[in-house]
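With this grant's support, we have settled on a layout for protein records. An illustrative entry appears below exactly as we store it:
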Amino acid sequence: MTAFEAVTSRPLQIQIADHLARRIISGELPDGARLPSTLELAEIYHVTPVTIHKSLQHLVQRQLIERMPRRGTFVRSRERVNVIGLAFGKNPFLHQSLLYSQLLEQFQQQTPERDLNLKVYFDFQSGSRALFDLEQDLARGEIKAVIASNRSPRLTRVLDDHPELTWLEPVGLDQRGTVKKGVQYLIERGYRKILVVSMLPKVLEYEDFRAFFHDEQQGAAEAAAGSGADVEVVRWGQTDTDGYEMGKALFADRTRRPDAVLVNHDVVCRGLLLALMELGLKIPRDIALLTHMNHGCEFASPVPLSILEVDPARMVSLCLDTLTKALAAGASGHVVIPKLTAELIPGRSCGEP
């Protein structure tokens, strides 16, 4: 049996339930296997029968076991209906970026082509039942996997509470490769004082956010190596207000101005464009501008922008390919999708003819 070691940071009945769940998911306890009695499990785990009873109740709620009166407790078949939960941590229709509504549209188009049924959960934060409904559906075994889009802390907690669940996020961007490609392009265009505005928020809530920011920094450093260019990577935020306020403060001071900016977030770029126009600065005469942009998310600019483009349809296709393979392999937990590198599409905002 897989070794069990208790820690003090979590309730003991949850730790035992998670341990048994891992044994079930790994196949160590196969479908239909009869579990030891409550008293036997109590002896195995060196706890009281009451603690074991609570642990088994958690596994019943997760649909991993079923308890039959006078017969015992059995591992339940892991076969699930072909329903995929698409959970949005924030309202996709109120987000400044069009990406999330585009993702929703693409999932609605592409899942029927793969014989998958889609159930959507919108967590609107205040008074929403979406995550409660998701938890209930998970407990009843009605959801085969979850795609977590624009993940919030509340949605993250739900996913963490179900370690047996297969889940993934639909956006996998190669931040290192994308930023490297953009900075190399600016250096090739002759720019030597370059500012990279990160895609990440000012506060890095999650460990993967810190890793993504490190990837952006690494990509910029690799592109600048040996070129003599001065490249700085900063976090301004993720709204057009952030782009406007930070851009206006920076470019109002002539001594601090870079000669080129790579904005790795299209919404932030919208705000920066407004700041530049209010300051009377011309693109690309006074400042070169290269921005991330999702396909179909065009916005007004004095000149056609050079962009690093990612296609939401490709994101969704790659996400569903990865999910299908993970389910076929019996994977559980967080499944990481392959990363996409943005395509560079020159405009006129970086001194192109």
